[in-house]
């Protein structure tokens, strides 16, 4: 028997054991969530985020308690949490990201413009609106709307905020919205699930979803739960839970202030 054939035969013998080891990573006694401890309003170690509430819903349906592995989102998050086997699901993950295996999406949201309600820009619905010319606009650097703003000739008016930060010590979205409220910025363009809940809590601000943009990159994203690539059965179980409990999921998201849109980012979901 050649070395290659021996290696193949050995791999076939060992394959079931390897699969079993992967399957055993998932806990059947806890709903083990990988999460950022300071990504409010999404997740927080005080349990106040809407992703915390979704975790509680899923745990209740599975009749197990929730447990968390906390780690700041950014470089190394998936490697140190999900892939390390210390937790089993990331509650919010954009569809198509290759670092995880995506479940079916359970909501779709969109970027939008945040202004003061009494602002002259309060009626703006598109990033090509001439009213934005010469206005100071906040945006998270490297995100899709930054490309749209630059294409619209607004690069000189953009104020960039960092994308990957340790939210335990820095809060770029919160800072950006505070600058809109104070008038330091005329507007901000931000991701709906981050900005929407914060705006809902502030009577002076408004969030207008960007539903009319037709150029790429797209400004809407379908959000899934992330699991390990090998765990097909776990993914199917979560897909079933999403399908059977979509109304309760939507209620949690609506209550939080997350702007929900249809699967193509064209209309608000009601």
UniProtKB/TrEMBL annotation:
Keywords of the record? Signal
| Residue stretches making up the Solute-binding protein family 3/N-terminal domain | 30-256
User: Which positions make up the signal peptide?
Assistant: 1-20
- SMART domains, A to Z: PBPb
Q: One of this protein's Pfam families, by short name?
A: SBP_bac_3
Tell me where on the tree of life, at the top rank, the source sits: Bacteria
> Gene3D superfamilies in the record, alphabetically?
Periplasmic binding protein-like II (3.40.190.10)
Give a yes or no for keyword Signal in this entry: yes
| InterPro entries for this protein | Quinoprotein_dehydrogenase, Solute-binding_3/MltF_N
- Full protein name: Substrate-binding domain-containing protein
Upper lineage = Bacteria, Pseudomonadati, Pseudomonadota, Alphaproteobacteria, Rhodobacterales
